[in-house]
Amino acid sequence: MTDAAPSSTVKSAMRTLDILELLVAQGRPLAAHEISTALAIPVSSLSYLLNTLADRGYVERTGRRYGPGDGLVRLQPRETADTLIELVGPVIRSLKVRLNETAGFFVPKGHEVEAAVSEIGNHALKYTLEVGQHAPMHAFAAGKAILATYDETALADYFASSERKAFTARTLTDESDLRAELAERTGRTSVPAVYVGGQFIGGCNDGGMGGVLTLDKAGKLKPLLRAAGCMP
Q: What is the pLDDT of residue 53?
């Protein structure tokens, strides 16, 4: 039994690679008939491949000649890893498309949050921060979400050092009010959210199974950590 003949898809892929290798090796733009002759590719097939490569930026069209395009740089190995923003951007765009809602990614900047990625939904009424804009943590939903990840030391430092202005009659500025809202949103007044072996045990001193300090004082924390393989 002989192997099946290569599919047209494979042939097209091989021809595409041949075209790119030829253009890079020649070091000068080539006319379509030169490429066709050098690679034995029918002109009708070559035209389709060249147009596709040009549309993607891998081939640069100058008059009736073709040369390597700037898009080839994208095929080079990156010397540095993608930044967090480069990694998050496609996720935020996908959320916006799938949910048809405005979506954003925010990072802490002192006592404020900065919009690092912002994708605007299609609704008539919408509001969000544009990329680079800042907003106070205490008065912005994303800021409160970030505060909910702070450990107790960082949270206490935030409340001690931040100036929290009221922007509307409903803006919470008092530490106890903000802690109460964090507790309502997260099910605890202390942070961060701690999981052991996939089980939520709470924050610093409440929530879940009572929190880290509560469990430790009761002598229950170490057994949980040992059972999860976190300590000998």
A: 94
